[in-house]
Specification:
By secondary structure, the protein is an alpha/beta fold. This is F-box domain-containing protein.
């Protein structure tokens, strides 16, 4: 068998294997699929909408783990502008909101994000901005809207923020 034929057979086998696995996952009840999707990071969770028509509504209704970090921002420069869109279009509860990137890029927007009704009932809030070496001693005031989560928060972590204004 020639190498080209072998590669073609390998590709065909891999595609068939992937399709079988996808069919198995699609047989799971929506509640189970929603639980799985809710454990995924934002980017991967959003990608599940492309799997099939049945999966499209799952990400929007599953609990959201909104993780915005510098790696994601560097790959998608407009992600800061997408955060309000994600918060407004996601119908399910938001379980986790993690911000970990250069704060100078969006400090003025954080208050608006934290005021979003989509974050009602938030369980985990992490505000860990990346700071340039010269800015390491600078403390930013904690946005007042962050205090509204105190009844539901299980985890709160913040660096470079102070509760003193």
């Amino acid at each position: 068998m020639e190498e080209a034929e072998q590669q073609a057979l390998t590709r065909t086998w891999r595609m068939q294997s992937w399709r079988r696995k996808r069919r198995k996952a699609s047989r799971l009840p929506d509640a189970v699929l929603g639980s799985i999707v809710s454990l995924l990071a934002t980017k991967e969770g959003a990608r599940t909408q492309a799997i099939s028509r049945r999966w499209r509504p799952l990400w929007r209704s599953a609990p959201l783990n909104l993780v915005v970090d510098s790696e994601l921002i560097n790959k998608t420069h407009k992600l800061i502008d997408l955060i309000p869109k994600i918060l407004s279009e996601h119908r399910g509860p938001t379980r986790r909101f993690l911000l970990c990137f250069r704060i100078d890029d969006c400090y003025d927007k954080i208050e608006g994000w934290l005021s979003s009704q989509a974050l009602d009932g938030l369980q985990e809030l992490q505000l860990n901005p990346k700071l340039w070496f010269a800015d390491r001693k600078k403390l930013y005031p904690l946005p007042p809207s962050a205090y509204r989560f105190s009844p539901t928060l299980r985890v709160a972590n913040s660096t470079a923020f102070t509760s003193r204004t």
